Amino acid sequence: MKCAVCEIGNLAEVHDLAAELEGYIFIIKGKRCLSCGEEFIDEKEGQQMITIAKRLGVWGDPLKLHRKLSKSARGTVLRIPSDLEKDFGLKGTEEVAISKLGEKKFMVEIE
Ligand SMILES: [Zn+2]
Question: How far is the CA of 90 from the centre of ligand 1 (A)?
């Protein structure tokens, strides 16, 4: 399996990815590119992290889930976490409004 970011490196299974969620650091499984060092969180692990965060009561507003953007031929892609998808009942065909809130922040509203 090749890295989706640099497209040259092979991915190695790692067990020491640090993911931050609401100020809590979770050490989870995933993959790391041997070439560029990009880290990919295992989808199941990510879901489990959310489950744990909910149990700890740290999953709330403002929700901060760290995601990596990815590149597609048509631009930059941000995947919506499946928990949010369920919460909002997203079908993937909705129109959204994107507002810039600052230098490093934007908001997505479902219309
Ligand atoms: Zn890479």
Answer: 31
Rounded to whole angstroms, the maximal C-alpha distance in the chain is 41
Domain 1-66 has CATH 3.10.20: yes
pTM equals 0.47
Count of residues for the chain?
Answer: 111
Rounded to an integer, what distance in angstroms lies between the CA atom of residue 26 and that of residue 48? 10
Distance (Å) from CA 44 to ligand 1 centroid = 21
pLDDT per residue over 3-17, tens digit each? 999 999 999 999 998
Residues 41-80: pLDDT tens digits?
A: 888 888 888 888 778 776 655 456 667 788 888 888 888 8
Question: Residue 92 is inside which H or E element, if any?
Answer: none
Which residues of the chain are in CATH 3.10.20 domains? Answer: 1-66
